[in-house]
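Aim 2 progress. For Acyl-coenzyme A thioesterase PaaI-like protein, the working sequence is reproduced below.
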Amino acid sequence: MNQALSLYRRLVSLPGGRWLYGRLICFKAPYFATIAPRFLALEPGRCEVAIRDRRRVHNHIGTVHAIALCNAAELTAGMMTDVTIPSSMRWIPKGMTVEYLAKAKGTLVALAEPESPAREASSGYAWPVLVKVRNEAGEDVFRARIDMWVSPRKAA
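Predicted structure tokens for this construct:
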């Protein structure tokens, strides 16, 4: 089993485990700490992360900043990709297309799911991941399509 998924499954049932998991992920990738993510779900083919509406992520009009939404999308898509693709493959984001649908206020939840099943391959390929960010009313406020570049791991 993937190391990130194994750790998530061990921590999720503990008090504060979801918070701790988010902190550990941010320790490995510090930039994501700017959004203080809380993992709600992580499994092959699906990742769900919540971000709180705090001044730290606001823009000049008091809503969640566009780049904070992009951070949530990239984190969610990346973690879903990491626990979904075959262990013989690696990944890196290659491109992102975003849509801002409404003002982002309140606690937001990003959900990442792939457009197609992951596969093992002898050469690299683009693997699109869809991310929706919803507000507390369940309305989509942001959408992203992230192309992950999935390629074989180099031999040691």
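The mean pLDDT is 95. This observation will guide construct design in the next reporting period.
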